[in-house]
């Protein structure tokens, strides 16, 4: 027996249990157990079970699992949220990840059940998980109001969490107007106008999305207005701006679609104007950061790219001075400028 075999392989054992931990988090979130515990003293399992309408024994096991995972504190008086749970896991927490967790449970979990087929076939498994094959990713999300709302809430929760880091990775104060292409609920746009009061920001997204953005707007007295414009960035004219933004857009599309989109942005961008790309940038070996590598397993037609691949891609469409900020904060940021005419 090798010496290493006398020490338990803790990393592997942890990974073997990873699915149980994820599902415990998803179900406690879906049943809004963290919401029930917010701002209340310690509660017993029976109280939570009565409020949520679940069995006492099942609730107790789930709450114990959440305590074991560090999501709850357990004392003889009962269970309470940790500070981090109040902030990130309650549905109205300041940086709530509830929307993304529900998307993970209802959409990604069924998809990942078919990972083996996805790997064998090299394609997304929507038809197996949900019984249909849509022409593109977003047609799947926008076919029903319920799924659209869930997807937008998921995008909003991550965008709200990462917006400040993206908006401040570079000093953008020289720009007067920005257009966030595929800007969804406007979470990044609102952060930009807060940080750069002289910047006017337009969010450009599909009509189905723009029709649904009012639900996600911050209260009017806290932020300057953002303009929402509906359209298809592959087909329609893009609003004029001196800074274009693509946040979590490029990784979704195959090369042919990226060619159309970047050609259009490059054509409308005046020399000296800029393009800001927010993505999780892979290291050159393409094994880090793990969240981006694992996201690739969804098998969309797009792909995650390394820093040198983004540089090469953007230069191909006439952008220069490509600068990359690795934030180690879910989204890295790439800024580049439309080359001045010779
Ligand atoms: N930028 C947001 C963020 O970082 O959270 C949302 C990213 S989400 C992965 C991609 C966005 O692109 C969605 O809001 C989607 O509706 C939008 N989108 C997809 N296809 C589009 C198209 N053809 N024209 C305009 N927007 C599109």
Overview of this structure, please?
The protein is of the alpha/beta class and 342 residues long. The protein folds into two domains: 3-88, Arc Repressor Mutant, subunit A (Orthogonal Bundle), CATH 1.10.10; 162-338, Rossmann fold (3-Layer(aba) Sandwich). Helices cover 45% and strands 14% of the residues. It is built from 15 helices and nine strands. Strands 5-4-3-6-7-9-8 form a seven-stranded mixed β-sheet, with helices on both faces. β1 (72-75) and β2 form a beta hairpin. The radius of gyration is 22 Å and the shape is globular. The relative contact order is 0.08. The mean pLDDT is 94.
Low-confidence stretches: none
- The total strand number stands at 9
Number of contiguous helices: 15
Radius of gyration: 22 Å
Helical residue percent band:
40-55%
Rounded to the nearest angstrom, the distance between the terminal CA atoms is 68 Å
Q: In CATH terms, what is the architecture of the largest domain?
A: 3-Layer(aba) Sandwich
Number of domains: 2
Largest sheet: 7 strands, mixed
CATH homologous superfamily grouping of the largest domain: Vaccinia Virus protein VP39
Based on secondary structure, the structural category is alpha/beta
Shape: globular
Mean pLDDT metric: 94
Strand content: 5-15%
Could you name the CATH topology of the largest domain? Rossmann fold
The ordered H/E elements are HHHHEEHHHHHHEHEHEEHEHHEE
| Strand order in the largest sheet | 5-4-3-6-7-9-8
